[in-house]
């Protein structure tokens, strides 16, 4: 068993952990980053599958994600815009596919009016929310007691309007059924992106990608740390006192003055804390859970949908694949579609064989793009729910009442132990941008302590 001593031990080599470690090194502190997986990146993973480069995990960059944009620029990486020239496709409740342009789905005029009115109402509510202190809003407890679905249905009896409004934070982002989380949790999701309007604007929220893949961000940050990053080292025990920590992994032990847990909070239970974490943290973490989404990659010999004048952007709250986009790599002759199946639909699909699952997903894509969508040359499903060191996607969110009750404690250090990941971000919540922000914040808190 190797034993080393550092100022800080960082557990997790995703964007939060590698950011924190670099910030600590800049401040003159020594670090060791212990990663359970055999790779750097966490929920950001760019891989080559059957000759096709695919973004298995997070991939998009929006203009408001300033921490991520700064890091991309500082690392010397380049970005390219998501292809969006042409019409989008919407499949309505009767199964009819309609082409449209702009942000509003091609629904009946009365449904369009209702959607616009409720979005305006939501934008006004979101404007009152501080994403870093959502629990501090005067109505936080009230809004945390009503489900997102119930609130929407109290606004209108137009089911199509409700389904289209609900899916932006439900299926699309939190990846949970809309009856399983609160209005407050939904408002936080929107506030983290600046407004509800931003959240439903695909051209804004899914703006650019990194040439060569987003995983380069944590990979390049890890490169700067050199031999201080240790892979295949899941931390099993974390002993802590007011004076420091001892982290015990499979083949090494790190003694340090501080620790940063830079991974999803649903994995805290994998670590035996000695002594146990305080009762409030114990309760808090039981009220957080991951969503579930299948990210589908379908690669074709060419982006055939462009020949039809389609942008590749598709939506429907009635389809198995509730949204899909042109995800063709920069300067790639082949065309790639990325689609998403979430919450209960994803559960149902995994009760099927792989062949049946593929058939049903491609059938759904054909409703948007035509029969040619059924014949990709490469097909792959990102299943983060079966990833031992992730256990869901995209990130953790609170159950009913949990955010107002425990949100203020989410990022609070416990003695020498600090917490940093996208799951607990305000601005940039659930995104790499949020992971970077949390990594910076945890490092800054430790540096302040060290200097104080």
From TrEMBL:
<dbReference type="Pfam" id="PF01593">
    <property type="entry name" value="Amino_oxidase"/>
</dbReference>
<feature type="domain" description="Amine oxidase">
    <location>
        <begin position="16"/>
        <end position="446"/>
    </location>
</feature>
<dbReference type="InterPro" id="IPR036188">
    <property type="entry name" value="FAD/NAD-bd_sf"/>
</dbReference>
<dbReference type="InterPro" id="IPR002937">
    <property type="entry name" value="Amino_oxidase"/>
</dbReference>
<protein>
    <submittedName>
        <fullName>FAD-dependent oxidoreductase</fullName>
    </submittedName>
</protein>
<dbReference type="InterPro" id="IPR050703">
    <property type="entry name" value="Flavin_MAO"/>
</dbReference>
<dbReference type="InterPro" id="IPR001613">
    <property type="entry name" value="Flavin_amine_oxidase"/>
</dbReference>
<keyword id="KW-0560">Oxidoreductase</keyword>
<comment type="similarity">
    <text>Belongs to the flavin monoamine oxidase family.</text>
</comment>
């Amino acid at each position: 068993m190797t034993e080393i001593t550092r100022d800080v031990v960082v557990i997790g080599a995703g964007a939060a952990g590698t950011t924190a470690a670099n910030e600590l090194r800049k401040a003159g502190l020594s670090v060791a980053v212990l990663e359970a997986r055999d790779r750097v990146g966490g929920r950001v993973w760019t891989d080559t599958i059957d000759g096709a480069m695919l973004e298995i995990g997070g991939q998009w960059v929006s203009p408001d994600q300033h921490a991520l944009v700064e890091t991309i620029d500082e690392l010397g990486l380049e970005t390219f815009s998501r292809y969006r020239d042409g019409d989008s496709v919407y499949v309505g409740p009767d199964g009819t596919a309609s082409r449209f342009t702009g942000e509003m789905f091609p629904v009946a005029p009365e449904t369009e009016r209702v959607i616009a009115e409720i979005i305006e109402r939501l934008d006004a509510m979101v404007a009152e929310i501080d994403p870093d202190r959502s629990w501090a809003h005067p109505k936080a407890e009230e809004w945390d007691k009503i489900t997102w679905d119930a609130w929407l249905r109290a606004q209108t009896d137009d089911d199509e309007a409700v389904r289209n409004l609900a899916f932006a934070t439900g299926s699309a982002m939190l990846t949970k059924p809309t009856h399983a989380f609160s209005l407050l949790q939904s408002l936080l999701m929107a506030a983290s992106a600046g407004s509800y309007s931003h959240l439903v604007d695909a051209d804004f929220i899914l703006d650019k990608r990194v040439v060569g893949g987003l995983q380069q961000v944590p990979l390049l940050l890890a490169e700067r740390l050199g031999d201080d990053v240790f892979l295949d080292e899941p931390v099993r025990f974390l002993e802590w006192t007011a004076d420091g920590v001892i982290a015990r992994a499979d083949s090494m032990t790190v003694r340090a003055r501080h620790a940063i847990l830079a991974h999803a909070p649903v994995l805290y239970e994998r670590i035996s804390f000695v002594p146990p974490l305080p009762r409030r943290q114990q309760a808090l973490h039981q009220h957080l859970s991951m969503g579930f989404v299948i990210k589908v990659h379908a690669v074709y010999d060419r982006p055939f949908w462009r020949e039809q004048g389609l942008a590749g952007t598709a939506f429907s709250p009635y389809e198995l694949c509730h949204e899909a986009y042109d995800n063709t790599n920069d300067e790639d002759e082949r065309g790639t579609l990325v689609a998403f199946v979430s919450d209960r639909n994803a559960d149902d699909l995994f009760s099927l064989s792989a062949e049946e699952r593929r058939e049903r997903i491609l059938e759904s894509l054909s409703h948007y793009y035509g029969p040619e969508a059924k014949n990709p040359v490469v097909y792959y499903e990102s299943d983060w729910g079966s990833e031992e060191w992730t256990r869901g996607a995209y990130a953790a969110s609170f159950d009913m009442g949990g955010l107002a009750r425990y949100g203020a404690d989410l990022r609070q250090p416990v003695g020498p132990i600090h917490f940093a990941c996208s799951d607990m971000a305000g601005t940039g919540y659930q995104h790499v941008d949020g992971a970077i922000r949390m990594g910076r914040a945890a490092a800054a808190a430790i540096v302040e302590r060290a200097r104080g």
